Description:
Blueprint: H1 3-6, E1 10-14, H2 20-30, H3 37-45, E2 49-58, E3 61-73, E4 76-84, H4 93-107, E5 112-118, H5 122-130, E6 134-143, E7 148-156
Parallel strand pairs: 4-5
Antiparallel strand pairs: 1-2, 2-3, 3-4, 5-7, 6-7
Amino acid sequence: MSTKEAKQQASVDLMKKEDLPEILAIERESFKTPWTEGMFIDELKTRHAQCLVVKIDFDGKAVVGAYIIFWVVADEVHLHNLAVKKEFRRQGLAGDLMNLMKHMAGQLGAVRQTLEVRVSNNEAIGLYRKCGFIVKGRRPRYYTDTQEDALIMWAENKQDE
Length: 161
């Protein structure tokens, strides 16, 4: 099966501790300063956190192809983490997870979504804009590893969507 066909064989599941070795590998290939196993375990224990994985049937084995972690608190959603395994990128998985987050958030009464993103992460900024997010602010030196600024982006959850 090619990676282009993978999306057709994908399912979304709740993240489990057993998924962490694959998630940590994706995390390391995706971010300058990856989350630790402890950070993921903390998210799995957090009441407000929604932790989801995309499992892809690849060569007869279910592998983690992507994941998303977001919090729903009161009427807001805060995206904490989103990544796609390199060989499954540019196939719409990240956009699908963003749309799922928006849908779940609406079901839980959230009317707004927010996130922070490195100012240099043009690919992610493009995805977020495509998903309806706009830049509303900037956090100077937000990322302690590089002292890079973060853009603060917001999107509204429309009631008719």
